[in-house]
Design a protein that fits this description.
By secondary structure, this protein is an all-beta fold. The protein folds into two domains: 86 residues, Immunoglobulin-like (Sandwich), CATH 2.60.40.10; 89 residues, Immunoglobulins (Immunoglobulin-like), CATH 2.60.40. It has no helices and 19 strands. Strands 4, 5, 7, 8 and 9 form a five-stranded antiparallel sheet that branches. Strands 13, 14, 16, 17 and 18 form a five-stranded antiparallel sheet that branches. It is globular, with a radius of gyration of 21 Å.
Length: 232
């Protein structure tokens, strides 16, 4: 289990893992890692379908104590799925769905659509989760600050890009509603929990919230008006 605390949770947080190690059994890199929160790699320039790694429950990062299921979706035979864990080939010609029993970083590969984006399953003391989907302007989004095995956590505070957002009136949850483009940023939470019979402060790893475009219901378009002289 990770420590969850990390060093220097103020400004200048690190960017995390840079990707699989470059050895003979490492997977190829996904060429388009954008929209990682949605759990998919977007279409290639040629419009080809790509492999998706879906998470249940649908939260990022998923946590080990939730009994996480990963489903590999892509073209080709489901039984030909190759799984990677922590950058190493882990299961060749495996099933297209697995139940995670160890923390770490997972990817899957399908013969016709290639490599999925990574999904990191956490087992840290404190984890900040965001919904595993594309976040659109105008949406209502809930961020959850969770302690290991859902033990009691108090005095929870939230941070965005190193700036203190204070405590939420909802305790361990932070609501962003309606979502705005300026809500984009790197978020963390900090809380006090019991660790070996003593109260200690823990800090989550950062998660990235990226707000895209405008939700179709965020604004009502004005109907086109006929020009003078036009028949109606």
């Amino acid at each position: 289990m990770g420590t969850g605390m990390g060093q220097g949770w103020g400004l200048g947080w690190g960017q995390g893992d840079t990707g699989p190690r470059g050895d003979a059994t490492s997977p190829p890199r996904c060429p388009h890692p954008a929209l990682a929160l949605a759990g998919w790699c977007p279409l290639s320039p040629a419009g080809a379908q790509t492999t998706q790694l879906l998470v249940q429950p649908p939260w990022t990062p998923p946590v080990l104590w939730d009994r996480v299921t990963l489903t590999c979706q892509g073209s080709g035979t489901a039984a030909a799925t190759t799984w990677y864990k922590d950058g190493q080939r882990w299961w060749q010609k495996g099933p297209d769905r697995i139940v995670v029993t160890q923390s770490g970083t997972y990817q899957c590969d399908r013969p016709d659509t290639g490599l999925s984006p990574t999904v990191s399953v956490s087992n840290d003391w404190l984890v900040l989760q965001v919904p595993a989907r594309a976040l659109l302007e105008g949406d209502e989004v809930k961020l959850r600050c969770r302690s290991w095995q859902d033990k009691l956590v108090t005095e929870v505070q939230f941070y965005r890009d190193g700036n203190d957002l204070g405590r939420s009136p909802w305790g361990t949850e932070l609501f962003l509603s309606p979502l705005q483009l300026n809500n984009t940023g790197r978020y963390r939470c900090r809380g006090r929990m019991e660790d070996w019979m003593r109260q200690t402060l823990k800090v989550s790893e950062p998660v990235t919230v990226t707000v895209h475009g405008e939700h179709p219901t965020a604004a009502t378009p004005t109907p086109a008006q006929p020009l003078p002289g036009d028949s109606v």
